[in-house]
Amino acid sequence: xxxxxxxxxxxxxxxxxxxxxxxxxxxxxxxxxxxxxxxxxxxxxxxxxxxxxxxxxxxxxxxxxxxxxxxxxxxxxxxxxxxxxxxxxxxxxxxxxxxxxxxxxxxxxxxxxxxxxxxxxxxxxxxxxxxxxxxxxxxxxxxxxxxxxxxxxxxxxxxxxxxxxxxxxxxxxxxxxxxxxxxxxxxxxxxxxxxxxxxxxxxxxxxxxxxxxxxxxxxxxxxxxxxxxxxxxxxxxxxxxxxxxxxxxxxxxxxxxxxxxxxxxxxxxxxxxxxxxxxxxxxxxxxxxxxxxxxxxxxxxxxxxxxxxxxxxxxxxxxxxxxxxxxxxxxxxxxxxxxxxxxxxxxxxxxxxxxxxxxxxxxxxxxxxxxxxxxxxxxxxxxxxxxxxxxxxxxxxxxxxxxxx
Amino acid sequence: xxxxxxxxxxxxxxxxxxxxxxxxxxxxxxxxxxxxxxxxxxxxxxxxxxxxxxxxxxxxxxxxxxxxxxxxxxxxxxxxxxxxxxxxxxxxxxxxxxxxxxxxxxxxxxxxxxxxxxxxxxxxxxxxxxxxxxxxxxxxxxxxxxxxxxxxxxxxxxxxxxxxxxxxxxxxxxxxxxxxxxxxxxxxxxxxxxxxxxxxxxxxxxxxxxxxxxxxxxxxxxxxxxxxxxxxxxxxxxxxxxxxxxxxxxxxxxxxxxxxxxxxxxxxxxxxxxxxxxxxxxxxxxxxxxxxxxxxxxxxxxxxxxxxxxxxxxxxxxxxxxxxxxxxxxxxxxxxxxxxxxxxxxxxxxxxxxxxxxxxxxxxxxxxxxxxxxxxxxxxxxxxxxxxxxxxxxxxxxxxxxxxxxxxxxxxxxxxxxxxxxxxxxxxxxxxxxxxxxxxxxxxxxxxxxxxxxxxxxxxxxxxxxxxxxxxxxxxxxxxxxxxxxxxxxxxxxxxx
Lengths: 405, 497
Fold this sequence. Notes:
A: alpha+beta; Alpha-Beta Plaits; B: Uridine Diphospho-n-acetylenolpyruvylglucosamine Reductase, domain 3
C-alpha cells in the first residue's frame, strides 16, 4: 500500500519531494489520473495527487491570458473561456474514454504535461505552443518559474516547452499560464466519399495548400467511417473543416470545394454535424475502451503527412486505422499480439520519419515494449542528462517514459 | 564600453598558433582566419557598442567540419561563439578573445522544398527572406518576418527565436520550425523533430530554439511554409492620445479579432518617419496604429469595417483603410523606416525590447515620459502593440560626456518597469550580453539555476557562448549538488488519506 498525498499549496509539493529525497522514495504525479494507464507501468512509493490544487488565478479575456493552479479541471477552464467566447485553440483531446475512464476528466496541468492537442494541431499548434509560463517544483524540491504571462518572450531558455509533454518526469506543475484565443466564429465541413488512402493524402495536401483557414483534415477508411458520431455512410470519408466568420464562411466553402473537386464531388456538413464529427475524431471515438474495438491495442503515430499511407501499407491488414492532421497523425488499432505490432509499426515509422506511441496495451506489453518512442545514441544520452539535472535522484515519475529516465 | 566577459584563459591564448594550425587541418585554408585585419568584420554584431576580436574565426562548410571543430574545442577546453549573419541586437554573437568564432555563413543552401508537406529544409546560413523567395513562385511563404529578414539567417532566427510584425497571428520562430539538426559541443549530431508534428520525447527542439547559441550549433532547419493569404489590408488610425490608441488595441482583440499585426507609433516616431519617407501619416495626433488583417477577401473586408467602427468608438481622429496593395505598403513604409528615421534626428540611439501586458501600456507610457524628463533624453516609441512588445528608442549622443551612461541607465529602468508591470525583459531581441545583468530582475536564483541545469545537460564544460544570457555561469558541479533538508517534516500540513 503506497502513501497518498494531496497537496494544496506549492510548499506542500516541495515538502513532498523533500520527503522523497530524504527517504530515497519515488513519487507518482497525478491530477485526475485520466491518463494514468499511458506509459510504462512502474511502481512508485507514493502518489502525489494535484487535484486539490485548483482555481483560476488570473483570466483577462482582452489580454488573451489565463493562469490556473495545475489541478484545476480542464472542463472548468473550457467552460470559463466559453463564457467569454474564448477557447484553447489547440483543441486538447480527451484520453479518458480511450483508457477506460470517463469523458470530460483531466486537469489543466495534465493537459500540459501530456502536450495535448486535437485536429486543429495543424493550424493552431499544441499545448506547447500556447504555454506562456509555469511555476513548477523540480526533483530537487525547489520551486522555479519559467516564462511569464506575455506571448512575446525570449528571456532565458524556454523551459516551458521542455516541461510540456514531459509527463511529470522533469517537474511538478503548480501553476500554468496559457494563451487563450477567441472561439472560432463558425465552422463548416466538407466530405468527399470513396477515396483510397493515397488519393486522400493528395486531397488533404491540396486543401492545406490553399490560403483558406482549413482547421481539420482527416481520412476515415470505409470500415471506419460509420463508427464516428455525425457520419452514417459505410464509405471511405475524407473530411475537411474550415473556420471562419459568418460573413465569409460560404465563400470559403465554395473555394474549398473547388480545391478538392479534382478528387471527387463533396457534400457539406452543417455546423452541428461538423462539431459532432470533429469531437469524435479528436477523441478517437471508434477505439474507445467501452466500444467494440476496446480490446485492441492503440497506437498514435506522428508522421510526415504524405507518408502516413506508406506506414499503413507496411503493417498488418488486420489493423484498423484512420488519419487526422492531413495524414500526419495515424491512430492504429492492430489486433492483440505478443508485441501489439510494435516491431512492424516502429520499423515502418523509422523508414519514413516520425514517432509512434503505444497509447493502450495490456500492462505486460507496456512493460516489454517502450510505449514512448525509443531513443538511441547521443539523443538518448542527452535525454538522460536532462533528467539527471532536473531530477537527480529519480523521484518524479521515474520510468514512466523510458526505463531509467 | 565595459562589459564583464569571462576572464580569458591564458593557457588557451598561449596555444593560439597551435590551435590555428589544428583548425586548418580540419577546415581548408580560407576557412580559418587569424589576421587582425580579416577578423575585424567579426568583432561585433548588430549591437555595435560592444566589440571584441576573437582568437580565431572558423568558417566551416560541411557538418563534418563543424563536428570536428567542436570536438577539438571540447577536448581542448576552448570556448566557441556561433555566429550567423551577425544581426543580433543583443550581442549574442559578440566574440571572446580566447574563443573560436564559428561562422555558419557558408551553409547557404536550400536542401529541399516539399510543397506536398508544406515544409522547406534549409541550411542555417540561408537568410530568412531567401526561404520565402524560394517558395513564393508557388504562392507560399515563411511566416516569421524579423525586420532584418534581408540579412538575418534562419540559424540565427532559431538561436534567437526571432519574431516580427506578424507574430500576433502566426507565432514566432518556435511555432514555425518543425525540425533541426544540431551538433553538440562534443561533436555529436542530434536530429530533433522533422517533417512531422510534435517531436518525439522531450521537446528539445523547443528549448534549442531561443537558446542563443548556448546549447548547440544548428546545422539544418526544417521550417513550415504557409500559403500566402488571399488578401491583406491595413488600416492607418490616428488618435489624440496614446491611451485611446492603447484602448483600441484591447478593444479589437476583446472583440475576438486577431489581426495579423497591430503596430503603434508615438508622436516623435511618427514625425521622424513622416519626414523620412512621406508615408502620409497624420501629424496632428499623439499616436497611430497600423492594423493589418489578412485572409479570404470577404472576411478581410468585413473585419476592416469592424475595426474601423471599434477605432471610432475609441476616439480615433483619423482613419484610412488601404484599398490597394500600394497603399498598404505605403502605410508600412513609415513603420519599417522608423529606426533609420530616428537615426536621422539623433546621433545615436538604443533600441529596447521589453514586453508588457497590453493593458499596462498607458501606465508604462506615462512612466517612460517621466523617465525621459529625469534622464534628460528623448524617447521615441514603436511597438508591436498587438502582443505588447515595446521598442522604445532612447536618443543620445555618445560624444556628449555621460550621455551614453545615462541612456544605458534609462534603458535598464524601462526594462525593470516592464518586469514590474508583469512583463519580460526581452520580447524578440534576446538577452545576449545586453540584458544579461538584468536577468535577476525577472528571475530568482532558483529560476536561473534551473535554466543553467539545462545548459549543463548540453554543455557541461560551459564552452558554448559563455558570457551570454546568464549574469554568472555557475559551474555544473556546483549546480549538481543536492540540498536535501533532511525531510524531517514530511507533509506536516498535507492532508493524508
